Amino acid sequence: MAAMSNVNTGELLDFQDYSPEHNRSARIDVEAVHTNQYNNSNTSYDYVEPKPVVEDDPPPKSGNHNFWTIEYYQKYFDVHTDEVVERIISSVLPQKVSRNYFDERIKGKPDLYGPIWVSVTLIFTIAVSGNIASYLQNANKAIHWKYDFHLMSYAATAISCYVWLVPLALWAALKWTITPDVDQIETQASASPTMMSLFCLYGYSLSIYIPVAILWTIQVSWLQWLLVLLGAFVSGAVLIFWLLPALRKSKYFIILVGCILALHFLLAAGFMLYFFHVPETEPEVIIATTIKP
Fold this sequence. Notes:
Elements: H1 2-5, H2 9-13, H3 20-44, H4 81-92, H5 101-106, H6 113-137, H7 150-177, H8 185-191, H9 195-205, H10 209-215, H11 221-248, H12 253-276
Helix pairs in contact: 6-7, 6-9, 6-10, 7-9, 7-12, 11-12
């Protein structure tokens, strides 16, 4: 109260005029004080601009599915048409691709779409061509020809057993007969083909028999046997050509190579003899007998 009594009341009631220059100076002083405070704060620590937050990609889903589920086999049907066509051509003409084609393409990414498609196409081709061959054989005979629907079931049984059982037996033989060295234990897993890769390889190896089955309808014995040898040699050569690195590591190299070629020859010969070939028979000799009274 003592301080207020010393103040002149006239000064309190008098209004003072402020010029624009006065306001400007006051605003500059405030900005200067704010800038000095900001500079002083920067001297104590460095200002780091925050980086934008990038969300990480979601972790990939686990591909370990049960063997009996459909999801387990989805990866074996994830194949493009160009890859299927390339594998069919390479199974007939292995020289079109490099020697490491099996390790780089089929062994690393086997598929079941192509082998199943080739097997089903071969089944229908053999069934239809076999009936055409039967019709041509009986065209000049006085019999009523009928379409044999059982040929399809016989062809399906033979092809399915060959495509699935023979690769399984070969996989077991390679697994039990390959004797790796101590220094090659780590590389042995890559040298031995997997079961799915053998299924894929054997399925594509039957591609040569689709055009051969159509040509088997020609009823010329020497031509049919020539096609048997041609189909068995080409198809067997593809298997030996791609499996040679693994077969060389086996103790029974010669036996396995002989079995692969022999089974291919038996398959081709069985197709030709059962579905297309008619053995040449000698004309029946009718002996006329006379009975004297």
